[in-house]
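Morning. Coffee machine broken again, so started the prediction first thing and wrote up yesterday's gels while waiting. Chain of 187 residues, entered below exactly as on the submission form.
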Amino acid sequence: MTQLLIGILLWSLTHLFPAAASDFRSRLITKLGENPYKGIFTLLMALSIYLIISGWKASIPELVYLPPAWGRHVTALLVLIGFVLFVAPYPPNNFKRILRHPQLTGMVCWGVGHLLANGDSKSLILFGGLALWAVVQMIFLNRRDGDWVRPGKVSLKKDMIPVLIGVVAYLVVISAHQWLFGVSPVA
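Came back before lunch.
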């Protein structure tokens, strides 16, 4: 469980660093150069993902709470919303007019959704940890970036791009979930 927790902390701190310490980050980039900085960031991300995956596999879950009976149904909806919002920052769409941080909001939906279906210790660390990181990340980004200027309204047709990509990605992951993670979300 320690390895999983270290992976989540490394992921969180590495991502929080640019938002929480932007002046120090700028000085570090000036000193190291942009590509070496990006290289270090990428290595830390790869290490955190390795620690999360290997820590998850090595952890023996203990029941922390009983998820509600309706949790699995809400999980499906929240994870689908999470997939759509995860791709929403990229193409022009109206999601970005409603949510300042659609991708991070999607991560919160994904994490909370999984917590409604899983009540074990390693799920609490993984899904709760990443959802908490996303909330804290939004707070730091809002402080760093100041007032939010909402993007202009675009055609509703443009909203279909993240919806379609999100739905397709969701269906692919649902179909491969048993193979990828050893758990069927539809059983």
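The chain has eight helices and no strands. Going to sketch it on the whiteboard this afternoon.
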